[in-house]
Design goal:
The protein is an alpha/beta fold. It has one domain: Phosphoglycerate mutase-like (Rossmann fold). It has eight helices and six strands. The chain has a six-stranded mixed beta sheet with strand order 3-2-4-1-5-6. Strand 2, helix 3 and strand 3 form a beta-alpha-beta unit. Helix 4 packs across helix 5 and helix 6 crosses helix 7. The longest helix is centred in the middle third of the chain and has 21 residues. The radius of gyration is 17 Å and the shape is globular. 38% of the residues are buried.
């Protein structure tokens, strides 16, 4: 197995509604000043990693994070593909509401179920399972072919759309994925290897196996 590729996952930097502790979902809010600085730091961390192409959602906070990463890392010429399939989980009727106030209105237990259950959706919104069911087909159709060609791919998206991908890469159970929190603007670098069909491979990314994983959670070297 001599062909490898990097898959780099980055959640967007802090948004203005992250700062205000609001359910954001598909509402198109901008990065906070801190979020912009987080994105630049991620770019510095990724300067040493070659990137062939990048993918992001249709939402401003992810696109701006990607733009700042590419600018800071020196990868300005990397082609970028945008897709709604990588959008954050849709929070339906909860979007725009303060999380603490929502807990008072509906009860902390009910809000916890909406936020942390795998297959229970908030009113008018998506569950994590529903999010995964739209993310993985896009990954399979658009990102997997590039990885199989040995191209290094950078995906800048959202906490829940990235959790759907990590769940496959790390072979996590429903229970395990519910406990996973992906920090803002913290690159997760997977080294993937090409494998033959009869060998163990990632269920959602057939033809690939994980050779290594590194979380760049400190200052750049």
């Amino acid at each position: 197995m001599d062909k490898t590729a990097l898959l780099i996952l980055v959640r967007h930097g802090e948004s203005v509604w992250n700062k205000e502790n609001r359910f954001t979902g598909w509402v198109d809010v901008d990065l906070s000043p801190r979020g912009e600085e987080e994105a630049r730091m991620a770019g510095k961390q990724l300067a040493a990693y070659p990137v062939s192409r990048a993918f992001t959602s249709n939402l401003m906070r992810a696109q701006k994070t990607l733009s700042l990463i590419l600018e800071t890392s020196g990868h300005r010429s990397v082609p970028v593909e945008k897709s709604e399939a990588l959008n954050e989980r849709h929070y339906g009727d909860l979007q725009g509401l303060n999380k603490d106030e929502t807990a008072k209105k509906y009860g902390a237990e009910q809000v916890h179920i909406w936020r942390r259950s795998y297959d229970v959706a908030p009113p008018g919104g998506e569950s994590l399972k529903m999010t995964k069911d739209r993310v993985l087909p896009y990954v399979h159709a658009s990102i997997l072919p590039a990885l199989l060609r040995g191209e290094n791919c950078l995906v800048v998206a959202h906490g829940n759309s990235l959790r759907a991908i990590v769940m496959e890469l790390d072979r996590m159970t429903r229970e395990q994925i519910l406990e996973l929190n992906i920090p803002t603007a913290t690159p997760i670098v997977y080294t993937l290897g090409l494998v033959s069909p009869e060998k163990e491979q990632i269920p959602g990314l057939p033809g690939l196996t994980v050779l290594g994983k590194k979380i760049l959670d400190g200052p750049p070297c």
